């Protein structure tokens, strides 16, 4: 995909793999909408991209741990831009950010489910009009090989909580949403795919979990860019990748009844209405 004149939103792009992806897209000529919670880091990246003199960068500050924060980001993007060619849903928190105890979001939802999954669900649907108007366009959901089936009797994991289970459940939720949204968007010119970019990249999230990195940010970033811009992905949708290779997700991802339950719950929690 030629990126001159294209607009790309990368959530969680002030650090780690998101930062790498945003910089590479700008260097290829795209207008990159940078997102993060830290205003200083966001503005520093935007300035760095502008100094490089190739693409364009605009920073949007938003906290995706609240639905209001995710909704506000969508409103700002819609108000400021006449097109959106690629949406990379990358923002997330790991299994141990701010400690191992169970945490809840501003809306009362389990925090990892809220940040890693619900925020991206809400953003994707709110941004669909712009993505449709810019088609052919792409959505890339940055998920993980760490996947745990959803217990629909206790989605918010009030019993038997662990950070790793919560993280893995949120990532499987992203993959299930990817499959459903790809089916919904058939014929619109929008593709939707998800991936595990790389294992234990050298990122803040990984280091916060006390884990020694074994992959580079560059490896993960190139896998994300493959789904976002490469020509061989132009007509592929609803798929899960492990790095550069198509892979199988947890079996629950392919359970249509489970996906239907997750969709109904997600619409209820976000207040969205869909056909």
TrEMBL record:
Keyword Oxidoreductase in annotation: yes
Keyword annotations of the record: Oxidoreductase
Pfam families per UniProt: adh_short
Example of a GO MF term: oxidoreductase activity
SUPFAM superfamilies in the cross-refs: NAD(P)-binding Rossmann-fold domains
Domain of life according to the entry: Bacteria
Protein family according to the UniProt entry: Belongs to the short-chain dehydrogenases/reductases (SDR) family.
Identification of the protein by name: NAD(P)-dependent dehydrogenase, short-chain alcohol dehydrogenase family
Originating species: Bradyrhizobium erythrophlei
